[in-house]
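Q: Got a minute? One more chain.
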Amino acid sequence: IKTAWLPALCAGHKRVTLALLEADAQLGPAHIQARAEALPGGGHRLWGKKFFVPDLPSADGILVAARSAGPADPRQGITLFLVPRSHPCVTLEQNALTDATSRSGQLVLEGVELGPEAVVGGVDDGWRLCERALLFANVGLSASSVAGAEQVLRQGVAYVKDRKQFGVSVGSFQAVKHPLANVFAEIESARSAYHYAAWAVDAGSQDTRTAVAVARLCATSAFRQATLTSHQAHGGIGFTWEYDLHLYLKRAKHNEYFLGLPNDYEEVVAREALGI
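A: Always. Here it is, folded:
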């Protein structure tokens, strides 16, 4: 796999995505129902359906998380397989999502036969690799959410400074400027959270999982609140197709549910930080 894929990935000639979530959109090994049947010679046959696979239409390969062992130990019963998108037993279904720019899709596996070389990492050890990948993915998601929140706040502030009502800028009204000030404070908190999470991942801190979950929750919440507040500050014009604000609102909603639901990460904080 390394010889066949890594040079092309590093050169940008090929793209690989991760097929992790299933119909319930819940994050965790216990929610993975796609199954991998062992074949003679070390190969496997994959069955199942993966939902909300990011960038699926443009991917050349798909890392599929499938159950290769019984439910007695779900964390150790998941294996990652690298499946070529061109495999004849693979079917792609386009998603109809709120954020049309996300380009995710469903992956249908109908008896996909793979050799032992398709296993990434080790058999029954795939979830450990998924958890590591999710740390980096969620730091990136947090950073992009903070950046998106900053942009829609700038748009909102610029608009209320320019828009006049009763002879003065609407930004001079307390009911308009104070919600924007609250968004600014929320963004600053989210920025601090994702900076710490990035450091924790890089340094291998003991609280890395908690730090990343907190950063994701804070950043996606700030992004959502920033878009809603900016829409309110714009009034009716903010909801028109001519303004880019609706694109940010859709992306904020997309980020909130990307690679797991908010309650998945709230559970991480409750378990890791609070011990409950």
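A: The two ends are 41 Å apart (CA to CA).
Q: Perfect, thanks.
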